[in-house]
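hi!! sorry for the late reply, been swamped w classes. u asked for the two structures so here they r. pasted raw, havent cleaned anything up. first the sequence of the first protein and right below it the tokens
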Amino acid sequence: MTNTGTVVNDLAGRAAVGTTTFSLASWGVRVLARKTAGLTNASLKFGFTSATAGSWEYEIAAADIGTSWTLIERVALGTAWGVDGKLFVQGIGPGVNGEQIEVALVEPYDPTSRWADETVWWSRPGLPREVDMTWGPVTIASGQGQKVRYGFEMGDRFYYVTDRSVWVTQDNGGEPGQWPLELVADGVGTPSFNGVGEGADWKVIAAPEGLWLFTGSTVTEDANLAREIKGLWSRIAWEQYGHLVTVRVMASLRQIWIGVPLDGATSVSHLLVLDFSEGFSSGLSSGGVGRRWSVWTIAPTAAPLEFLDANNERRAMVAVGGKTLSLADGTFADDGAGYAFAWEGGPMGPDEGLALFRKLTFSAEGSGLLTPSLVRAGGQLVTFPSQTLYSPRRGDYALLASVTDERVGVRFEQAATSGAWVRIARAVLSWMPRPFGNRRPYNP
């Protein structure tokens, strides 16, 4: 057994590293240890002793310590903190000749405000299990209470993402702890360890304020891809369950799948899907060409996955309710159950004044019923009778209307019926300037 000795100095200072809220009534001990493979009938004891506050100890069996470095954290329940205290570590035998437990770190920590959340540990090059305890740790936004949630490499730089900022560093030939660190984006971050999706030369970051497109430089409001769904985005339970949000870029589909807890849900309840097959620009400002959002009523129990199958074809899969579902062409149900469909375009109309919207013409094929509507500027729906769908299609649908408003949108809906589907090829809304004045004319 190897005993690394007793820590006696600067306990109060070590406890305060990275936090200003260390509580004398809430604390614990953190140990980093590993054992040799042949050690079985032994244990490791560590703890705290103080002349003024008493003592506390914890013993862990060798069977629960890995042969690679194992981080062990235990809260000292029922024991007050004393600044005159000493930490100790002790090997308990009988042990086996030639076998040992190594301890690289013994320190106090605050379980209510984990300063370790702002520390990233780098391994030695080519040795992922070997962490240098002096030069390996890198502290991000030291003392600001931020929590590191993700890291990625882009170009020749490495980026750290905390819950509210993005930082960049670059290898300068020294140890990671000596690399320069620079703030790139303040106020942009994610509360989730799975809150960043990776594209080829861009990333997306899910935050309470929106979904941010990040290309390596300062982020502006134009980079918020969720601007047109602010109402929907605000329904995500960010404060309580934001750490559950998952983001995956499905490259073959040119889509981003975001698992979120909506409307008070305590677990992921929906997928928000961003289709960027026509680019990342907003369709509201580019004639309908650009990104498109949709809401899938799927409650995944794990992050979505995209991979190459045995036929070298990309497949998109998601775990739901103990099953793994695969996205497949020609399937119009989720595990046999139908799902509702709705599509809504951006508002159309004159640049100023009122318009009379007179006719909706569209081309569609499918199965089941399709319900078209016009969406007024205030959000109210003017709903047409449901139309029966056919495949192959039987000509265009032409529906007369008499709606006066500044601008209106077009909406199509289909109820959750198994086997129902629709493919809309074209939709045209006819309108003219309102033929009546808005005010009584002036009488001389």
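now the second protein. again sequence first, tokens right under
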Amino acid sequence: MEKNPDPFVFANRLGFEVIETILPLHQLGRIEVKRDHKTIYLDKRLGYTQRRCRLAHELGHYFTSPWEVLTYRPGSMDQVLELSKYEYRAEKWAGEYLIFNEELKYALSVLEDIFLSDLAERFEVTLEFMRFRMELYKANKYNHAGATTSS
């Protein structure tokens, strides 16, 4: 298996400044994209694995969210609900970036009696993140298993 992707190196290559600081309660990370500067803030109270997952999530916003989402904070409940789909897309992108389908499939095929915690440790992600990634993997596997070709 290949070495796990490093979101810190990737963020740097994209020109992001990653700042570890104390963020407000319930905020683990935040992305700010301005015309002349890109910054990702991570809560420095998080452990390395949590910061790694959060950084990948914030990069997911960069690749999957429209510009407007990266530059404002919601005011109404409708805006909050609208943002939840962008949160899902960012987390999905992060899951697929940190854990490739092929790598996950390989790990599942060679490891017997595997626990979710073993997979999380192998891929350097949190248990919660691994659960989410497994759901994506199962959904993808299920969607492709039912596909048929017509003649």
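hope this helps!! also noticed smth abt the second:
Residues 77-98 form the longest helix (22 residues).
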